[in-house]
Structures are given as structure tokens and as C-alpha cells.
Amino acid sequence: MAKIETETRGNLRLIFLLLSVLLLVLFTWLNLSYPYMPSNKAEILDSAASSQWCVSTNRLLKNPTRRPQRNHNHSSDTPLHPLDPLTIQEFNKVRRVVASHALFKSKPYVLHSVGLEEPDKSLVLRWKYGDLMLPRRASVVARVDGRSYVLTVDLDSGRVTRQEMVSSSGYPSMTIEDMNTAMSAPMNCPGFNRTIMDRRVDPADLVCLPVSSGWYGKSEEKRRLIKVQCYSTKDTSNFYMRPIEGLTVLVDMDTHQVVEIVDQGRNIPIPKADNTEYRYSAGDVHREMKIVNPISLEQPKGPSFTVENGHTIRWANWEFHLKPDARAGVIISRAMVRDPESGEMRSVLYKGMTSELFVPYMDPTDAWYFKTYMDAGEYGFGSQAMPLDPLNDCPRNAYYMDGVFAAADGSPYVQSNMVCVYESYAGDIGWRHEESPITGMPIREARPKVTLVVRMAASVGNYDYIVDWEFQADGLIRIKVGLSGILMVKGTRYTNTNQVPGAEDLYGTLLSENVIGVIHDHFVTFYLDMDVDGSDNSFVKVNLQRQQTSPGESPRRSYLKAVRNVAKTEKDAQIKLKLYSPSEFHMINPNKMTRVGNPVGYKVVPAGTAASLLDLEDPPQKRAAFTNNQIWVTPYNQSEEWAGGLFVYQSQGEDTLATWSQRNRPIENKDIVLWYTLGFHHVPCQEDFPIMPTVSSSFDLKPVNFFEINPILRMPPTGEDDLPVCKDAASV
Amino acid sequence: MAKIETETRGNLRLIFLLLSVLLLVLFTWLNLSYPYMPSNKAEILDSAASSQWCVSTNRLLKNPTRRPQRNHNHSSDTPLHPLDPLTIQEFNKVRRVVASHALFKSKPYVLHSVGLEEPDKSLVLRWKYGDLMLPRRASVVARVDGRSYVLTVDLDSGRVTRQEMVSSSGYPSMTIEDMNTAMSAPMNCPGFNRTIMDRRVDPADLVCLPVSSGWYGKSEEKRRLIKVQCYSTKDTSNFYMRPIEGLTVLVDMDTHQVVEIVDQGRNIPIPKADNTEYRYSAGDVHREMKIVNPISLEQPKGPSFTVENGHTIRWANWEFHLKPDARAGVIISRAMVRDPESGEMRSVLYKGMTSELFVPYMDPTDAWYFKTYMDAGEYGFGSQAMPLDPLNDCPRNAYYMDGVFAAADGSPYVQSNMVCVYESYAGDIGWRHEESPITGMPIREARPKVTLVVRMAASVGNYDYIVDWEFQADGLIRIKVGLSGILMVKGTRYTNTNQVPGAEDLYGTLLSENVIGVIHDHFVTFYLDMDVDGSDNSFVKVNLQRQQTSPGESPRRSYLKAVRNVAKTEKDAQIKLKLYSPSEFHMINPNKMTRVGNPVGYKVVPAGTAASLLDLEDPPQKRAAFTNNQIWVTPYNQSEEWAGGLFVYQSQGEDTLATWSQRNRPIENKDIVLWYTLGFHHVPCQEDFPIMPTVSSSFDLKPVNFFEINPILRMPPTGEDDLPVCKDAASV
């Protein structure tokens, strides 16, 4: 191992002088860019005037071919539903309450998260529009004096009503300042700068990224550490493809000190910029590929959904509450579907969200082993969800919703267009039947399939995660994760596979000269507090098993039989899927039957079933033990929402879904929560270079004897009169 | 077992008189309806004037809200590509050649199939538009004198150039006359009529269906048998929900005789018609559910694809040949994709089609055990594909293609609008990346995902199979099967589950009073003659396996490693998928490398992985042994296209993919064929009553190091100017 101590060696004064100037410029520029580092303490942070997000917005607005975005001023928002997120006024109140609290008065502190503390479920279930608003509370995670605290701020009284010091192994999610600190810390370090010079990178071309370092034993404990790796932006905006391989800087996020610099990549060239650019504006127009005529989803009578009071969505037979969340990204609450027979709204899902991600890379070497991301708890899946690009991220008929989050000092800022909602029609068929002529019945009936999509896209560094909640009129909810964005690649000396002694030792695929796409997995774990026609539900495993017939019973030797097993306790519901011993997984309400006596239910229909194959005792797998099974069911517990634990950063795995479930609590006919993990194995291929075509997987929540009959039986077919008359914009 | 002999007992003369009149009416009506039973021998069968299909067409045309269909007159069609299907003139020539052939001159014969005999692959590969047309040949399957023959008719010389008597256990696909014969045979049988009276069914309300009887041992051998089961159409068009349970009539299709009548259902009521109707025209308008505003896929500049010479489709970077087929449904040939760097068209798939289906029901009792359908080889997946319903089966921007098939006497008829082709846009994202503000780069790039869909829908009796071939500009082909239509249900005495002693013994789910939805599986096996950049390919299993690290090697204990195994012979490529020992399955061209040395390839990405769990020695599983694995690879052999054998009806399983593959031929660096089976387990639920919301599964053929870089990198984003200006039709 080639370690460079952080002390100065040699005389490089001139270079330092130049670097200092550059760094000064860089710092000024960075600091001006961030809303969470405001110099003034305005009540409302005008992100549209000062933030990096705003730069993107302006770029868009300058482009006359794009539709300008609805720019809602959130300063006068008031909460209208008990689950509505904190408003700007509420964030500011929390900020003031915290600032004057004894704990924080005299010491510098950082707020790692500020968000709504949802009222008790029982209160929310009883509440309806028109009732008095339930008391509003905020949950605050703060660090002061090297300690982490969880506080409850009562917004009505303006008091801190709960204050708890947290002694678990992990730390709260990083703030953007943490990331910023990490990125800039190496620049103060002569050893680092010398290495950069050695690698012939102009510091002006340098971009460094904060890489959560996981937890790998004692040496890394009791300090909030992060690893920083750097790239060259020379000749490309796609710096991810130009890694300064092998250079890893360990930084203490609390002291802002560089702890260690390791450079093992000095004989690895930085890959060339050729073919890496993906921006349209930078493209070579002669090679442009305009191969498909424009196509658009058009709704002549307008969309069929409404957004009431900012967060309640009503569409077709569905109603649900939708809010952006800094950690989960998007939270769907109180999803209810109308019964076509009785007309009543029936409960399906009390709360659904992305709970945690786990993204282990499959390279055990020094600069890579620690890359085992848990994006929601470490980076914030919502705070990394950038504004969606109208017409390209979502179709023309989309509605956009902003997120309002708090910076590290508590100041609110607006994440504009973070979520979109639209009706989708891909030309698919809801149901159909055509009668064979042999019956003599001239029947041809078909219904188009139209759905409602709620979308967000989180850009957690290089990767882009597209999360869709798709509601179907037949009662099905499809939860889909799309992976796009840019690979995390590794530099190598090889320019052709014929130079590689053992191809398996690449830990991935040679994508281009000197670029390896490293094998990795993605696991996205969803929290699904199902309330099927009420809170008390049971989990039933319906095993499909082969039954041999008795001699003489039948000309058949075998058939499949469905055997129902009701889970009594949590261990009965720790499910590893089996291909050759398949089951259906029902969440039923044992207290409510259909007319002919089937318990009403929803089933989770697994897909994206890739499982984590790491050693159970491997540190990253212990922290991500929630991926040990694809399905879990736990009793409802307000404190058990984040599958990797509340404090995931550098956690040691003592507070995960796996540990809670180990208690083996009763789950039959109780308020229970379903957890499902979507998994992907990703062996990169050249098509993923320099930016990846989206790969998606989804799982379904599907009604199973929930309705008496097909709930879309009575939908009318589409006729020509229903459709719009359209013209090419240029011809109008 | 209560068996009623086919002789007359008792005196029921009056009833017989009445029945005879009814039967006469029924027969006349049925015979008038079918194009394949023409009384005149016109050169072109005008199906638009005489067929049942035509009734449907007329019904549509009468409805002013639907767009009238393009009604192409096929009588002057000429073949322009060696793979073009037989034209009407060619069908007529075949009919004349066969009629004057020695074998058929003096005896009644039936043509079970007439279709193009594709020229040698090597010739087709060399052929291009502008070249002389290759010699045209037809392949004919005929039965005469109780024997089956396969003939080749040379269309240029007008001679039969091959004539082969087939001695395998199976029989050719049924003709529509076979089905018709089967349906009407019981009506001549007093025992049957008495039973119908006993069950209180008015013969005027009776509909019977021909159910392929499978093969279950000696008693059913050496006769072409079929089982007939009947339903009541009283008060509903959805007679499938009103089974006359337990009544099974065994019919000899060659002698037209009833062999046996079994009635074990006399104490089972016929379920009521309540809630079974699904036709819009019959609906109760007050309960209509108009919950979604119209939505349409609009293309202001028109579609981006062209149909050249009737069958060659060009879209975006794709080109392929498309034809309807009476057995396979749809055949995709010579699919090629343009390389964005070189501009050349590169071969991906020489031929792809649905090869066979296997649909075993999971009820071993007398009236159900034999229901183990093989829809393509028994019924004809294409000949059961009815006209698509514009705006409901396919969106407004769809193009429709007709099928031209031959009736049992060789007369051609047109299956109009059997296939549709359209561009789809669901609002999804082709690729995206947004730069985190921490890098200071204001980047937000996204591209909408537009695809091309080729669709057909086969209504094989009750079930509707929707088969989509979806082409993506990123090189991916998605093959999707949607299941809709109507369940095959079983009558029962039970009206509530609380009356059922052991719920597992229902063999299904109580869906409504007296109606059980029986558990069943669907397997759809695809033939995929991949030619990745040429015909000689290899199959590579890339195993993702856990690698433990050595002590001291890494803070990590484990990681996943990709280990490549090239299949040498067929047995290496008999793949049972494994959840916890996952693999990628590549079809590579070992003779062609990318710039950095990866073999160019495509991978099959499995999904819909339900496996058949029947006993391997169970007669239906022996016949459908091609479902013993999800993936197989065989050397190309023109005679190995139908996974269940050429003659599937009553086959004993001696000529399936499994037997061919057993030969264990070499497959490395050879012209090879990939087989993939999509599987579904279906435990019915009440939502499937009375007609099923579509359930879909799909698998992908995905480029893997086929392109040097992401092939859609240079696609432009959509701007507002690209989109149409639309108005509500009513406002124009």
C-alpha cells in the first residue's frame, strides 16, 4: 500500500500559490450555490433566486421550446390534512424553537432532518376533511457537541416535548454541508494536491464526490467518516467516466480533517473523455439521431384527476394522500379505492414508501470494498430527488408537485417539480374477450387500460432512481423502480480484454478503453402499511404444491393444490421466495368476507426478485440485513419505518428490520406492515456507457377477492368521438 | 360413474320431433356462418360477405363512433419477399394441385394446414429486395383415408414435390369443421338430449365447446377423439359462467360418432346468469362507470414506421419482416437493428414466434383431468386470433394487418385486422441523469421512451392471449403475453365457502354462487432463432456466484463474481432458472468482438418464470416436456420449430423439444435456436369474474456488448414545439 502522509514534503510553493487562488475561486463559487448555507436568515429561502436548482430552472426557462413551470409560492401554505408535510411557516417556527432551546443555545449545531411527526394512526384514521386539524408536531434530528439527538417540537405550544440522545452505532443522514465539507477537505491538504499533480490533473478540472464509507470494524468507529474520490471534468461533463482511480481520501466530517490519503492507482491512466458526453447541447449535431416522430399523450377533456388541498389526489376510483419526503422521496398515505357495488371508499394502504436502499459493489479491493450504499438513510432519497424535466421525465399531461425541505440550519427551501402525477396510456388492454365464430356469437369487447402514475427521480450521485407508484382502475398498485443515470466505473490499465489475464478478476466488464463497469446489486426496500378494509389484517401464504393422485383416482398423476397457511408470528412471514415451491402472499382481513365467503385481501406479486448473495456475516450485509428476505411482515410500530434503522450512516446493523422481526411478535389479525424488496443484479455492459438506458422492475399489490367482481367490468369502451382532433404545432 | 349408453331408451318421440326441428335450425344457421364450408368453390372466399368474422365487422361498421377499417382486397396480392405468406392466388393454386393429386382424387380429404414452406435459410439470408424472387413452395398437412400426410407443393411447377405419410402418435391441428362436428355430434344423440332435458336446459340455449382431450393411455389411442362440454346461454352472452357441470361427451372426429356420454353433475345446479354479462351494449347504463376522461396517443407528424411491400416494417433503427401465421399467430423474421456508429443493419433474430402453449388445469376429477391444452398445435393460435377492436385493443395510431389463411378445403379466407402495429409512449424515460448541486454542474438530461408494438390477440375459446412484440430503440425486444378473457369455471353445489369441508378440495376458488375458478397454469413457449451478427453463435451462461475473500484480503468477506461458461452441447443449455444461484444467459457471436474485445451478444432476460410442477411422468407433462426447463438451446434445424411436435393433437410426447434436445448435439459457434417459456400460475380470484382484468408477463432480448455504446445516446429530447395542438372532438 502506498500511503502518502498528510504532512508537506518537498518544495512546491509556486504550485500551492496557484492552487490557493483556484481553491478560493472554487470555494466562493460553491458557497454561493447552496441554499442551505445562507448568509442571511431570511424566513423563506428563495431557492429560485440563489440555488443550484434554480440554475437548472433558469436554463430550462431560457429554452423557449419548453413549457415554463408552474411556480407556486409556498410561503403562505397552510396544512389542511394531518399528514401534510411541514409548511414554510412551520419550518421557520421549528427553527426558532430549536435555536432558543437550551441544548443548542451556546453551541454550534446541525439539523440533519426536520420533518412532520405524523399524528397517531388512530387519530388520523378518525380524521376527515372538515374536522379540526390535529395537533402539529415536528420531528428533528440534530447533532451538537458530537452527539445525536431526536427531538419533538410541538408547533402549537412552540415547545420541545421530547428530547432523546441517541446512543446507537449509526449517525444521521448526511447534510449537504457534510458532503460539501467532505468534497473540499482534501483541497487543503498538500499531500492530496501533490497526488493530483502527479496524476496530471489540472485542479480546475477536479470534481470530488463524497462516498459513504459503510462500517468495517473498530478503526472506523466513533468518528463520522467519509471517503472522497475524485474525477476529471476535462473535456466532458461526464466526469464519472474519468476516475482518478485508486485515490481515496478519508475525511472526518465533524472535524473537517483529512484522516488518510491512499493512492494505489498511480499507474492507472485516467480514461479519455471520448464518447462520454451525453448533454444534448454538447452533442455533435451531424450525428444526431432523430429517428422517431413526436408522440404525445393527449387528453381533450383534461386530466381525470384532481389535487385537493395540495396533497389529496383523486383519480378514477382511487383517493390517496401524496407528499414529498426528504428521506423516503415520496410517501403515499391513506390509499383507498371505491367499491363499485356499494360506492364506499375502502382502505388499502395506510402508508407506503421507499424505506431504504442497499447498493453493494462487488469489488473487494481497497478503493472499492466500502461502496455499499444505503441511499435513503445516508444521502436522503428525497433530498437527492431533483426537479423533473417536463416532456422528457414526465409527459405533457403531467402535474408537478414541489417538495419543501429544511437545510442544515433549519431554513426551508423549495425543491421544485420534485414529483409528477399523470395519466398513462400505453395502448394496452384493460380486459378483452372475443367470441370464437364457432359459437355463432358476434362478440368483441375490449377496454383500454389507463393508469395514474406518481413519479419521482432521485439522482444519488451517479445513479438515477426513477420510482413510480402506478394506480390501476382494477385496484392494482404497481410499484416500479427504474435505474438510469451513470455507472460508477473503475479505471484500469487495460484497453482490451485480450490484455486481461483472468477476466473474472476485473470485477466487472471492460466498457471502453481503461474503463471497467463494476458489478453491483440494487435493493430497494418498500414499507407498505397495508390496511385492507381496516387495520387488523393477517398474512397468508398460499402454497402451490404438487399433489400426487392415488392409484386409480384419475388418469392424471399430479396436479397443483393451493394450501393456505396463516402466519401467526413474524418468523412465519420471513419469506425467501422459491421458484419451484411457489406461493401467493396475501394480506387479508380475516374479519371481512365476500358474499360467497372469501376473506377480502390484497396480494403482493413479487418481481425483481434478485436476492442478496453476500455472506450474512459480511459487515455490509449485517447493516442491510433487511435484504436477507424478500418479504417480511411486522406488527405496526410507529418507530419501525426505516428498514436499516433510523441512524444508518456507519451503523453496525443492530437496529434493522431483521432485528425487529427477530422478536417474533404475533402478527395474526393485527395491524401489520408488509415489507418488500425489489432486487437487481447489474453486470454492466457497453450499452451502459456513457449513460444507461433505463432498466426497470416492479412488483404489484393486487386485489384478491377484495372486490365481489371485476371492478372495471362496467367501464365503457373508447369511441372515436372521445378522442381529440390534433394538429402539428407548426401547422397551427 | 353414471354412464348413459348411446342407444335409445324409453319413449320420448314428441321431444325428439321438437329437437329435430331445433337441430335443423341450428345446423342451417351454423353452416351459413362459416367460410370454410362454402357450397360454391369461388376462387376468393369473400369472408366479408359470408363469415362470422364479417358479422363482427359489420357490427363495428354500424357503430358510427368507431373508425371504419381499411378493407384491403387481397385478391391481387403478390409475394414480394421470400418469407411473405401465401397469397390468395397461391392458396388457390395449392388447392387445385392438391385436388388433382393421385392421393386425393377419389377420396374425401381434409387440409389441416396450408402455409408457406420457407426457403432455405441460407438462400433467404443472401436474398435482398431487387433480387429475383426465390422459388415459392407450400407446405400442406392433409388427412385422407384415416392417414396424415405432409406434402410440399411447388408453386412454380404446380407439382407435389414431397409426400410423406406421418406415423407419429399425434394428429394435425383441428380444422374448424372438426370443432363444428364435435359440437354438433351430441345433438344427434338421444342420450345426450335426455340429459340436457334432465338438467332443465332449453336446447335453444345450449352452446357446446370442443375440448381437446389430451392423451391418457391406450383406450384413447388410434382414434381422433375430442371431448365436448356444454353451457347455457340463457340470460347471458357469457355462457362460460353457466356450465352444465359434469357432462362430458366423447366424440370421434373422423366418424362424427358419439363414443361415450358421462354425466356426473346431475346434482350440481347450473350457476345463475347474474353479474355475468360483460358486453357494453347489454350493460345497465345507470351503473356505468365513466371514471376516466379520454386519453389518446397522438403523433402530429404521423407514425415513424413504414410498412413496405406489405410485410417489411421499418421503425427507428429497426427493420423486420412480419407475417400472420395460422399456427404461431405472428412470425417476426430477419429482425435487424442499425448500428449508430457504422450505420449498417445488424442481424439480431432470424425468426421469432410463439411455438406452443401448455395450459394444464389442476383438477384430477373426471370432467376436468384432461384439460391440458396445447393451443397452438391443437387449435391454431393464429386461426383463433380474431380481428382487433380499434381504439380499445390498439390505440388510434395503430396500423392493422390482415391474415390470409386456408379453410379445410383449401379455399383462402381473410382474417381482417388480425395484427396491429403502433408506436407506444407511456410517459416513461429512455435514459436520464441529473447532476447533484454539490458538483456545481447544472445538468438535467432526459429522453422519453418510445417503442414499437406488434400485437395480436388469440381467443382460444374462453381465454384471450394478447401477444406483444415490443421493439425499443435501445436495441431491446420485449416479448409480452397478456392473459384476459373468461375463466374456464366449474359448477358446484356450494354457494358459500362455509359449506366447503376442505377448501383445498375445491381445486380452485369459489368466485360466485355455484362457480369455482379452477387453478391452472399457462406456459407460452417461444422459438427464437437468434442470429447475433451472423448465424454462428454460442450460448454463454454467466453465473453470478459468491466469492469469499481470503483472510486479510479485504475488509469485505464476500462479493459476487461473474463466471462465464460456454455451452458445448445441448445439455449445457437446458436451463432451470435458479433464484439463489443466478445467471445471465447470453447468445454471443464468438467471431465478433467490440473494440475493447467483448464478444457481441444479446441476452435473454427471464421473467414470468413460473415452472411446471407436474410429475414428469404425468401424461400431459410428457407431451409438454418442453416446459421441463425455462430455457433450451438447440442447433438450427428447419424441422424443429414446434416445441410440442408438428402433430400435437393426442400426441404422446415422443416428438418434442425435450426429445430433440436429448440428442445433446454440439451448439458452440453454430447456428443455434433459443427457446424461452413464459410461465404463469393462476389461482383465480373474484376479480376474475365474470371477465378477467389483463395479467401480463414479459421477457426481454437485450443487447449486451452488442453496441459499442448506448445506442440512444444521441436521441434528442422532446420540446413543446414537437407536440401537437389538440382539441376536444366535440369542440371542433
Descriptive report:
Two copies of one chain form a homodimer. The first copy, chain A, is mainly β and 732 residues long. Among the domains of chain A are: 13-29 and 175-279, Nuclear Transport Factor 2, Chain: A, CATH 3.10.450.40; 78-166, Nuclear Transport Factor 2, Chain: A. In chain A, the strands form five sheets. Chain A has a 19-stranded antiparallel sheet that branches. In chain A, strand 10 (306-308) and strand 11 form a beta hairpin. Chain A is globular. Chains A and B meet through helix 1, helix 3, helix 6, strand 5 and strand 9 of A and helix 1, helix 3, helix 6, strand 6 and strand 10 of B.
Helix and strand arrangement:
Two copies of one chain form a homodimer.
Chain A: H1 13-33, H2 47-50, H3 52-62, H4 88-99, E1 109-116, H5 121-126, E2 137-144, E3 147-154, E4 159-166, H6 176-184, H7 190-198, E5 206-212, E6 225-232, E7 247-252, E8 258-263, E9 296-298, E10 306-308, E11 312-315, E12 318-325, E13 329-338, E14 345-360, E15 372-373, H8 375-378, E16 399-406, E17 412-424, E18 429-434, E19 444-448, E20 451-460, E21 463-472, E22 477-485, E23 489-491, E24 508-512, E25 515-518, E26 520-530, E27 536-548, E28 558-566, E29 583-593, E30 599-605, H9 619-623, E31 631-635, H10 657-662, E32 670-682, E33 692-703, E34 724-728
Antiparallel strand pairs in A: 1-2, 2-3, 3-4, 5-6, 6-7, 7-8, 10-11, 11-12, 12-13, 13-14, 14-15, 14-26, 16-17, 17-20, 18-19, 20-21, 21-22, 22-33, 23-25, 24-25, 26-32, 27-28, 27-29, 27-32, 29-30, 30-33, 31-32
